[in-house]
Amino acid sequence: LKQLGIKSVVGLTATPIHTDSSGQDGSVARIMTQIKNPFFTDICYVVSAEKMIENGYWSKIHYHDVYKEEGEQHLKLTTNGSDYTDESRETTFNEMNLAEEVKKFLLRMPDNENALVFVPSINNPEEQLSIFTGSVGIDSKMGPKLRDDSTKGFLENKYKIMISVSSLNVGFDKPDLSLLIDCSPTNSVRI
Fold this sequence. Notes:
Layout: E1 17-20, E2 28-31, H1 49-54, H2 69-72, H3 86-95, H4 98-108, E3 115-118, H5 123-129, E4 135-138, H6 144-155, E5 161-164, E6 179-182
Parallel strand pairs: 3-5, 3-6, 4-5
Antiparallel strand pairs: 1-2
């Protein structure tokens, strides 16, 4: 950037912030990151989730926490400590019987609504798909054409339910999405 003569860069992010009151400047908003030398370091403007909902940009968020402490005992961090291992996420999903919890939510969903469900492993989409007609699964092992066709079908409401293994997350946009279910525990500060 210096070689191009660029002195300032403005970025937009949905990355959470936290209030740091450890310095001499009083309380300061800081970006939550696990990167040692982040590209963006200063925050010039913050819009709260409450304001985004109030102004009609976001839907009101309803959290339904179905996790149980005893299920979390199976979660193990990766060697670098940034997130949980895939194996421990799947074990937690199975031990907490989250497939049944998902089923309960999806059965209550009105016919004119749709859902995006994140599951922790490639085995789980097939299990979930067998429960619901009008649903499609997507994962990294699918061919590009099938993955694109499945995603397009979900966006065009040909499928009511999309079950995903880390394939549709940051940057995926479905304005009429009614329900998001995340069954993949994370240690990420961004989610």
